[in-house]
Amino acid sequence: MATETIKVNSREFVVKKYSFPTEQIPRLDYQDKKAEKLIENGQPVILTGSDLVGSAHHWDIGYLCSNLGSGQYTVYSSADGKFKYYDDKKLTQNKQFKPPTTQTDMTFQEFAAKLKRKDNKELMYLQQPLNDTVGTRIVMDFTNFNWGWANETQKKNHWGPMTSNLLLVGMEGVITPAHYDEQENLFAQIQGYKRFLLFDPSQFECMYPYPIYHPHDRQSQVDFDNPDLTKFPNFANVKGYEGIVGPRDVLYLPMYWWHQVESLHGHGETISITFWYKAAPTVKVVYPLTSGQKVAIMRNIEKMIAEALNDNESMPSFMQAMVQGRYT
Ligand SMILES: CCC[C@@H](CC(=O)O)C(=O)C(=O)O
Ligand SMILES: [Zn+2]
Questions:
Q1: Is residue 278 helix, strand or coil?
Q2: Do residue 315 and residue 195 come from a single domain?
Q3: 143, 174, 188, 215: most buried by Cβ count inside 10 Å?
Q4: Quick check: 8 pLDDT over 90?
């Protein structure tokens, strides 16, 4: 796999080289009016200076070991370092599906001990919502997040309630392959560096998500390392954005924006916390529709057809019958 070295604020990062062009994600102070405008318009921006999780900037593996308590944490392992999400509620309808990662529950102390081993054959990625099993110092740190700014941003943009804060602790090199989420996300980086590759929802035609009833619903079928342009020809036209998110940075990751996230080598394990919010309600439909709204429409129609047919095998022919020779 070809790599390239990029320099950001006098730091050098070796990153994988892909086939598509990218522009830089804007990087602005969180109080910059331009940053507020980008968030208002559902555009991604890397925010500096917010101290959204300033009270957690001292979190490292040792501190988490001593203060996260003895609760169970979900740890994924992957032989190829890719952690493509799958919905285990959809496994029953897809008997032949082979999960690409294994999931183990363990204490944070067990996870930290595994990180130290030199004979790991697989990469590991801890992904666990912060809950009330954590120790009092973590509760203190959590309480001291910059909730004033977070709540103000949520309110100003009419987002719905915050649904979860996911703690992410990844080994260097872990990759979350391209997918989109249906929630707004303030992504706070605490330790290590993550490269974000983002694609506007209008790139839907280039990203070829799995069918909605597939466990990999919302994930792109395209392997960025070896894109199959026969099966996915439009991927040849995809255009993205990219940026390096480091300690104290907060990325506003808008709903429906595709993203691939890579924990970079040479800077230690990555520690991040997500702040996911339900979407703002659509009070009044304004035309032209946004590309995110069009994805939501496509998704809802696909869902309704799958439910109405109640037979996933007949989905491909039904969907093709709807458009071929008429809209193709
Ligand atoms: C399970 C969530 C993973 C995260 C990407 C990453 O940090 O690897 C992401 O996709 C998101 O925050 O939406
Ligand atoms: Zn995501």
A1: coil
A2: no
A3: 188
A4: no
Q: pLDDT tens-digit profile of 138-175?
A: 999 999 999 999 999 999 999 999 999 999 999 999 99
Question: In this predicted model, what pLDDT tens digit does every residue of 68-104 receive, in sequence order?
Answer: 999 999 999 999 999 999 999 999 989 999 999 999 9
DSSP letter string, 102-146 = EEEEEEHHHHHHHHH-S---SEEEEEEE--TTS-HHHHHHHHTS-
**270 plus 301 within the same structural domain:** no
Record the tokens describing residue 245, joined without a space: 């998110």
Tell me, yes or no, whether 55 and 169 share the same domain.
Answer: yes
Q: 306 lies in a domain?
A: yes
Q: Are 123 and 100 in contact (CB under 8 A)?
A: no
Whether residues 73 and 189 fall in one domain: yes
Is the reported ipTM for this assembly greater than 0.85? yes
* Residues forming beta bridges with residue 48, ordered by sequence position: 29
* Pocket around ligand 1 at a 6 A CB cut-off: 127, 166, 168, 176, 181, 185, 187, 194, 259, 261, 272, 274
Ligand nearest to the CA of 272: 1
In a shared domain, residues 274 and 295: no
For residue 93, the model assigns a pLDDT of 86
Q: Which ranges constitute the DSSP H helices of 125-224?
A: 136-143, 147-156, 204-207
Token pair of 35, please?
A: 């940053």
**What is the reported pLDDT for 131?**
84
Distance CA(48)–CA(28), nearest Å, equals 6
Terminal C-alpha separation, the chain: 36
| pLDDT score, position 133 | 85
User: Residue 180 C-alpha to ligand 2 middle, in angstroms?
Assistant: 6
Res 9 pLDDT > 90:
no
CA distances from 113 to 53, 119, 154, 192 (A): 26, 12, 38, 19
